[in-house]
Amino acid sequence: MQTLVVAGLFLFALFKIGYCIDCYSCISSDNPDCVDPETHHLDRVRCDQKSLSDTEKFAKSLTPDFGKIFEVHIHEHRVPLNCLKQVTKVQGREIIMRGCQLPKDDRLDVCKKVFEMPQGELIDVKHCSLCDSDGCNGTTGRIAEVLLILAAVLLTIIH
How does the record say this protein sits in the membrane (predicted)? Predict the structure, then answer.
């Protein structure tokens, strides 16, 4: 029975779909705690149209052209969503943006589009990533998932 529970946890960690994903949603230019949301105990938000609009608003605060990349309207359809983390230097100041976004697919790769934007002395994207588990756009990323998988493997080996 214990092996069955461990196997179930293992599969859950591997195959979780982001239909109801919770992500950090903030921008460090408005909220300095956004630099390290876990340490500062920031709340995560459920990804939906409002959180997508918030991410678009954050992007527009970097530059209006970035805001256009993040325009997304899901009209209450159930679509999988991902968490986003972007680090951008704006006029020499590093700004961290965290939010919700559509996952990468054959037609859409928001991070690729961000890096394709003209960059220079005024704006320079240092990092952009998407992930698909609750809170994965924090500073620790997928450590909890990896630890869960390792614990499941160890328990399986021991028993």
Answer: Lipid-anchor; GPI-anchor
As a whole number of angstroms, the distance between CA 33 and CA 49 comes to 24
State which amino acid sits at residue 78: R
> What pLDDT is recorded for position 85?
97
pTM over 0.85: no
Q: What is the pLDDT of residues 89-124, one digit of tens each?
A: 998 899 999 999 999 988 889 999 999 988 877 889
Q: What is the phi/psi pair of residue 35, to 5°? A: -60, -35
The residue among 91, 136, 138, 82 whose CA lies nearest residue 110 is: 82
In this structure, the number of other CB atoms found within 10 A of the CB of residue 38 comes to 11
Q: Where are the domains of the chain?
A: 18-143
